[in-house]
Amino acid sequence: MTFLPSSLRQPSALPGFGLALGFTLAALSLIVLLPLAALVLRAASIGPADFFKIASDPRTLAALRLSFGTALIAALINTVFGLLIAWVLVRYRFPGRRIIDAAVDLPFALPTAVAGISMAAIYAPNGPIGSIAQNFGLKIAYTPLGIVLALVFIGLPFVVRTVQPVLEEVESDIEEASALLGASRLRTVFQVVLPHVYPALLTGFALAFARGVGEYGSVIFIAGNIPLVSEIAPLLIVIKLEEFDYGGATVIATLMLAISFAMLFLINAIQGWSRTKYGNV
Amino acid sequence: MAMSDRFLPLAHTPERATSETALTKAVLIGIAGLFLVAILFFPLVTVFIEALRKGWGTLFENFSDPDTLAAIRLTLLVAAIAVPFNAVVGLAASWAIAKFEFKGKNLLLTLIDLPFAISPVISGLVFVLLFGAQGWLGPWLVAHNVQIIFAVPGIVLATVLVTFPFVARELIPLMQSQGTSEEEAALMLGASGWYTFFKVTLPNVKWALLYGVLLCNARAMGEFGAVSVVSGHIRGLTNTMPLHIEILYNEYNFVGAFAVASLLAGLALFTLLAKSLLEWRFAGELAASSRRN
User: Fold this and answer.
1) Which domains does chain A have, with CATH numbers?
2) Which of A163, A171, A234, B288 sits between 20 and 30 A of B235, alpha carbons compared?
3) Is A241 close to B128, i.e. CB distance below 8 A?
4) Does any CB of chain B come closer than 8 Å to the CB of residue A237?
């Protein structure tokens, strides 16, 4: 039944390992790995000179800078407000708490295109918030600011849902000890409670950031999509594909993946460092 | 004396030491509430307001438009293929990963989660590079008259890729925490492997499976980026509901776009409600990461 040599697998009384693993690997290979390999092979078949030419095109660079920049700002905003929302949901009891708790997952459930047209309608110059901002000389929709707002919507649940379970597990005796030793409440919160949450907060930030970099549906309606100004990298891939420029699309996709993985690797390294500093929480 | 002065207030109001003042609480709850209203509630409510801008009659007229009906049918078809497929993969993956110890398990877990780390547009792009006219298998597919890109099979494949991890990641942690003792007991008593799976394992994970299927379905029906790349946007043929929203919106048919959007927003509300009910009623039978109280 099983095709793995016994040295790779510990003995078990349960049957079906070979079937389950075989089916999983077959599906994974056909649906995920083979198509991704097609991307890597395609990128490898583009010569370094051509690759560099597409990669250093001002439009490509502007799109990558915009995607990573707006995703970074949105993830930072979500880190602050996501922590605050998680704190309020875990620590306080108030009417409507359960509804708010359930509503945090709305961005997971609402299709991105729906969120996109709705936010474009709200923040457009003739929309309810856009018109108010217009009076103050602030343009939101069709600028990078609109992109940030869309990415804040998309990324919020990642931070809240990562921090919430960790915050729930912080023991109250460390807070009591800190208070008894004379620390102010503010100091207790920031120097005793929150350090336990930092690794989870960093994970939430990384997830929100990664999602924001690749986000397409909610952004393109509010972005205005002006080349060099408000054209995100995923949209540039779509434009290259519509022009049947497979090479251009492949180069931009490869760059996006490479930068994303490098940043996730960096965050994992910081994560490991903070674990040794704050303990495994 | 100085010491007792310092500790006296604590003795009278013990909750003060490990909690904030009522004012601080109210301010923090207020800020969190305002942020959520502005970022989450406002876009949701706007969908329904815009959809009903010209009244209920226009809304239902929009629903009966043939292209809209075709988009609804296609979205249901794609989800009907992608969700059961990923549910079966999720069950197989969690059986292998949670019930057995083998080398390379962490790598397998990372690879299953990989689609979460990839832009949806790239998830569509990879299938174009594989099956498109200039793709690796493109010439062969053309010669044999098989169309995948700009057709329903491409839409299904892109959706399956994007929603691949949803069921597996709900089931794996739960089945890991449940261990193997119940299955071992069933086998000792003479049950067959499949009988044990259907009568012991599956009932133990049924609510987590439903939870994963709900999330998987919400994403499958709402997926935009990946599907947009492979669909070709042929009205009545390869337009899913989210793509149809885009077409209507770009034609300045805002009421029509928001009418279709209101259906998907309704689905999102249903998903949230069902998900919350599962979290409240069956908290103990869901993976630790998805429990709420």
Assistant:
1) 49-278 (1.10.3720.10)
2) A234
3) yes
4) yes
